[in-house]
Design goal:
Strand order of the largest sheet: 10-11-12-13-14
Shape: globular
Number of strands: 14
Distance between the termini: 60 Å
Order of helices and strands: EHHEHHEEHHHHHEEHHEHHEEEHEEEHEH
Strand content: 15-25%
Structural class: alpha+beta
Length: about 425
């Protein structure tokens, strides 16, 4: 097997810096709270902010903006998504992109192939209900058109008895709403306590976006791969396909097409067993000086095999792991320091007490524990202030906890 040219070979350190730069970690956080325009530019750069229902620390879609831009007004992100305004000029819309996600509005037409392929792309009852109860789906659409925006409870349907082993206990009205949302006839006007509020797509997605021609599935998927490639910098085909959860066959085909066309540059990354692809205009900084806590759903780390390849960091979210079997905790955020993931902190916002609680803190092997504790303490103080929490408290769990507690005491005394 021939050795690729030098300009097609990357060390893992080079790949890591490219990835961090592509994700927006190669520049210092602004000295002042970022404007709505800068927040919007970041979301466009990332292409997607994943939503998640867990609120033990902070809603997952808020954290990636803080990680890159520092303290900001969360209401600005809400307004970009149309929350708190009746005007249909929103810049971000919700749809099934990676998972449930906020995406730039201009990406919405690129997911119409998914909307049209509900039988294969959706799951269980969401796909079946239009076949089994078409009259209910039609009635639900009329209800939203006449009374929207509405919540699931407004359909009048009754929640069924709980079923063992089922996370979602949805009634038929909710399933009909979700089918209409998946197929693009309804949109999410906003969320209230994380509950989706539905309205007709005409009242959610701006007209100039709705009126765009529908691209073919291959053309739309190619553009989604381009967005992913720019956001990742350097990536394998599974990395690229996972970003917008493309079917594997489609992901393989689209990546191959873009590579053949020269839009993706095949490269070999040290230690990676799979071929990689470089976005040709990706920045290649000589050094990255970052410090950030990362949500478990941050696009830098959400695809765990890539996280392990880039950072030699094995990361598993343990929310659904029984408490006695958890290694690091319920809601654990890695700490990025410089170019490395150096620690983990299990965080909880005790809003009643006004405290950010560190339920466990763990250093990675081989790190400078004193420096890591100092930097983590500073980052925790910053995030607590952003969330309006007056203090940071540290439990005893984890090898980093004692030195972290000492650093926080020292900061409080300054």
């Amino acid at each position: 097997m021939s050795t690729p040219p030098a300009d097609r070979r990357l060390s893992v350190a080079e790949a890591r810096r490219i990835a961090l730069a592509a994700q927006g970690f190669d520049r210092a956080r602004p000295a002042r709270p970022p404007s709505a325009g800068r927040i919007e530019a970041l979301v466009k750069r990332l292409g997607v902010l994943q939503l998640d229902s867990v609120n033990v620390f902070v809603r997952s879609h808020y954290m990636p903006v803080f990680s890159r831009l520092g303290p900001y007004d969360r209401a600005r992100l809400d307004r970009l998504a149309g929350h708190g305004t009746a005007r249909v000029d929103r810049r971000l819309v919700e749809y099934w992109a990676h998972e449930a996600s906020l995406i730039p509005a201009e990406l919405h037409p690129l997911l119409r192939w998914r909307m049209a392929d509900v039988d294969r792309e959706a799951w269980g009852s969401i796909a079946r209900i239009a076949r089994e109860q078409p009259e209910l789906v039609a009635q639900t659409l009329r209800l939203v058109a006449e009374r929207g925006p509405i919540r699931a409870r407004d359909t009048g349907a009754v929640r069924p008895p709980p079923r063992a082993g089922h996370m979602w206990n949805w009634h038929e009205g909710k399933v009909a709403l979700e089918h209409l949302f998946f197929t693009g006839r309804l949109g999410a006007a906003r969320r209230v306590n994380f509950e989706r509020v539905y309205d007709t797509i005409e009242r959610v997605v701006p007209a100039e976006i709705r009126e765009q021609p529908t691209p073919s599935a291959p053309a739309a998927q190619r553009q989604l791969v381009r967005v992913a490639a720019q956001a990742l910098g350097v990536a394998t085909e599974p990395d690229l396909g996972d970003y917008f959860r493309l079917p594997r066959a489609a992901s393989k085909a689209r990546v191959a097409e873009l590579a053949t066309a020269g839009e993706l540059r095949p490269v070999e990354v040290e230690g990676w067993s799979e071929p990689a692809y470089l976005w040709p205009s990706a920045r290649r900084p000589g050094r990255v000086h970052a410090r950030a806590l990362l949500s478990p759903f941050d696009s830098l780390i959400w695809f765990r095999p890539r996280t392990q390849r880039l950072f030699d960091f094995r990361y598993r979210i343990e929310i659904y792991t029984p408490a006695a079997r958890r290694v690091h905790g319920y809601y654990v955020l890695p700490l990025l320091l410089g170019e490395t993931l150096v620690a983990r902190a299990d965080l909880k916002s005790d809003r009643r007490r006004g405290a950010l609680v560190v339920q466990g803190a763990f250093a990675e092997p081989g790190t400078d524990r004193a420096r890591v504790a100092r930097e983590l303490a500073a980052e925790l103080r910053a995030v607590a202030g952003w969330l309006g929490l007056e203090q940071v408290s540290v439990a005893r769990r984890g090898d980093l906890a004692p030195s972290l507690a000492g650093e926080l005491v020292a900061l409080a005394a300054v």
